[in-house]
Design brief:
The complex is a heterodimer of chains A (about 150) and B (about 240).
Chain A lengths: L5 H25 L1 H4 L5 H6 L8 E7 L5 E2 L4 E7 L4 E7 L11 E9 L2 E10 L7 H10 L9
Parallel strand pairs in A: 4-6
Antiparallel strand pairs in A: 1-3, 1-5, 2-3, 3-4, 5-6
Chain B lengths: L8 H32 L14 H28 L2 H32 L8 H22 L3 H28 L20 H44 L1
Helix pairs in contact in B: 1-6, 2-3, 2-5, 2-6, 3-4, 3-6, 4-5
The chains are: A alpha+beta (about 150), B mainly alpha (about 240).
Chain lengths: ~150, ~240
């Protein structure tokens, strides 16, 4: 940089910025499946992964689908609005886990059932004081914002 | 009068010295009021309980972590194009401040994630690029120390800053590029729809202003220190020559 004239320095920087943006875009595009943290139920149903493949599934816990089984076993369905995948999990659920809330599970897809080894709750962007929600629910006007 | 006059170290020292108290005192005031308001005077969230209060440190720290890198990018480009030493020193001065902001955001994020998500850490695109940004900060600081010649050091670190900007951009906008991540999107945004109640928004804005002013004050102070250190070095060199 030291030996170059100012105009040439600007040209070098401009070329470097374009090259950097282009390479980032290409790498991001090529690795988009690897970078994505989870697969949606629709993606899993459309192209079921091999039973020994460890993947993550993400979506909403379908309303009315949560069934507590014996011991720690729990069954529920994860939906993205279209497709729905049944999930079975043994273990402790995070605090935020509930129906219609976002969830990410790690495990494998065996015979149409997702056998999860780990369940994470996904939090959305809503922040409301408890009193406000209680008051809204009392009046019956509380509308749940769609968690994504 | 042009803005480039303040690239002159003498003029910069005079201006920054006069500005410093006018930035530092509002920073302390905004942080004190914002943090006390956020920690003690806000109600519990309907799902998160009192864990929501971590937001008053996490969001401003993450905001300034990325903004600090952008500030370093701008000053690095000014150095590369116009060769003002004050600009390069300002970038150097900002790096440790930005690195600490990044570390604060990483730690508070983990503390929030453990009860809320159920994990301290996940290899989510946003979290991963933020961790890489932190490593870039460390590499940037190390590169300044590793090269003895100030002009070469400024050139090399400027290029490193340019490359690291990829991860600064990614950690802020990754949620928009890959929406299948664990980290939630922005609660504060110009898009319509109420995501965050006013009781949280107001103290959060105040904390963000406080962190931003704190960053400006620290960078001014550290740039002044860097300029003085460089002056001492020049004086010592001159003494040795005589």
């Amino acid at each position: 940089m030291r030996g170059l004239k100012k105009k040439r320095r600007i040209q070098v920087i401009a070329v470097a910025v374009v090259a950097l943006a282009l390479s980032t875009g290409l790498i991001g595009y090529a690795m988009r499946d690897g970078i994505s943290f989870f697969m949606s139920p629709a993606q899993i149903v459309a192209a079921p992964p091999a039973p020994d493949q460890v993947i993550r599934i993400g979506g909403l816990v379908e309303a009315g689908s949560v069934q507590r089984g014996q011991g720690e076993e729990i069954r529920f369905s994860v939906t993205d609005g279209g497709a729905s995948v049944p999930v079975v999990f043994r273990g402790i659920l995070p605090d935020l886990f509930s129906e219609n809330e976002g969830v990410v599970g790690m495990g494998s897809y065996v015979n149409g059932v997702f056998e999860a080894t780990e369940i994470l709750a996904k939090h959305d962007e809503t922040y409301m004081p408890r009193e406000v929600i209680d008051a809204l629910k009392e009046q019956g006007v509380y509308v749940k914002p769609d968690a994504s | 009068m042009s803005i480039w006059e303040y690239a002159n170290p003498v003029k910069f020292m005079r201006l920054s010295g006069a500005l410093l108290p006018w930035v530092a005192i509002p920073a302390a005031a905004a942080l004190a009021v914002g943090l006390v308001w956020g920690f003690f005077l806000t109600p519990d969230d309907f799902r998160q309980g009192s864990t929501v209060k971590i937001i008053f440190v996490h969001v401003p720290a993450a905001l300034m972590a990325v903004n600090a890198w952008f500030m370093m990018l701008v000053t690095s480009l000014i150095w590369l194009i116009r060769r003002h030493h004050v600009s390069a020193l300002a970038a150097r001065a900002a790096a440790p401040v930005g690195a600490v902001m990044t570390l604060i955001a990483l730690i508070t994020g983990a503390v929030w994630g453990q009860p809320m998500w159920g994990t301290w850490w996940a290899w989510d695109p946003r979290l991963t690029s933020f961790l890489i940004l932190f490593l870039f900060y460390l590499g940037y600081i190390a590169l300044w120390e590793a090269v003895p010649d100030p002009e070469t050091a400024a050139d090399l670190t400027s290029v490193l800053c340019l490359v690291g900007s990829v991860f600064a951009v990614l950690s802020r906008y990754a949620v928009n590029f890959w929406n299948q991540g664990l980290h939630q999107g922005a609660s504060l945004s110009v898009a319509p729809g109420e995501r965050m109640d006013m009781t949280y928004k107001l103290p959060l804005y105040l904390c963000m202003v406080g962190f931003a002013l704190l960053f400006v004050a620290l960078v001014l102070l550290r740039t002044r220190t860097e300029i003085r250190a460089r002056r001492i070095k020049a004086l010592l060199a001159r003494e040795r020559m005589a």
